[in-house]
Amino acid sequence: MREKSFWGHLEVMRCMIIRCILVVSGLAIAAFCFKDFVFERLIFAPCRTDFIAYRVMDRIGMIANVGQIEMININLASQLMTHLSVSFYLALVLAFPYIIVEVWLFVKPALYSKERKPAARAIVAFFLQFFIGLVLAYFLIFPLTFNFLGNYQVSERIVNQISLSSYIGTFIGLLFMMGLMFEMPVVAYFFARIGVLKSDFLRRSRKVAFVIVLVAAAFITPSTDVFTMSIVALPLWLLYEFSIFVTKRAEKIFQEK
């Protein structure tokens, strides 16, 4: 088969980018049209007292009362811009599997046959880890964080009225942060394969890592409740231990070669 020239590869990449833009744009338009479902059923669901995380915690006796938190808008164009930005971010998340497939089809011809299987596994792992982080943040970490911060008061004279931009910024930021944190094993595996990271170093750094995990958990969920902090800290610590495992496995594969 005749190899493509440099400009031929650029043309393939251009077509790939156009297809991805069209898919994201189509999904963004659809999300924009279904405003009530997107905001009431998805974005603002953690504001409701009957959200699944609150019901589960209440059933096991960990949350006795979830207060109703008011939300306001203080900027003229904020609601429209929020509608547009949320539609785009949601479309990006929904189109993420398609984008991954497009990137894989573009990169695959440049890989040797022995490299394709590990690369495909790495892409699948990246995809799954990111979405696991998103799901955990949406159904557990963000509701607890929002409930604590939204109901926290330094004085009874001050009533919390959360601005729309503050809520959306925290919502998207926290979900994205957790998605990135769940990429820890994938990143560790990559650096181990190129010889930069060693499993022995990760094992020796367990004490330091434990402190960092606790600080990260306190930052993500600034609650004085030990149980709430543990909900965040435990997955992060398990990710660190799993990173040690995948790093050791990557070293073994490298030694066999």
Can you tell me about this structure?
By secondary structure, the protein is mainly α. The chain has helices at 6-33, 35-43, 52-59, 78-107, 113-151, 164-181, 184-193, 199-204, 206-220, 226-256, and strands at 70-72, 161-163. The chain contains ten helices and two strands, in the order H-H-H-E-H-H-E-H-H-H-H-H. Strands 1-2 form a two-stranded parallel ribbon. The chain is flat, with a radius of gyration of 22 Å.
Summary, kept brief:
The protein has 257 residues and is mainly α. It has helices at residues 6-33, 35-43, 52-59, 78-107, 113-151, 164-181, 184-193, 199-204, 206-220, 226-256, and strands at residues 70-72, 161-163. The chain is built from 10 helices and 2 strands; from the N terminus they run αααβααβααααα.
Low-confidence stretches: none
Give the spatial strand order of the biggest sheet: 1-2
Distance between the termini: 30 Å
- Annotation field: number of helices: 10
Which oligomeric form is depicted? single chain
Q: Could you estimate the helical fraction of the residues in percent?
A: over 70%
- Approximately how much beta-strand content do the residues carry? under 5%
> How confident overall, as mean pLDDT?
83
What is the ordering of alpha helices and beta strands? HHHEHHEHHHHH
Beta strands, count? 2
Report the major sheet: 2 strands, parallel
Shape: flat
Structural class: mainly alpha
Radius of gyration: 22 Å
Task: List the main descriptive attributes of the protein structure presented here.
two-stranded parallel sheet, mainly alpha, 2% strand, 257 residues, single chain
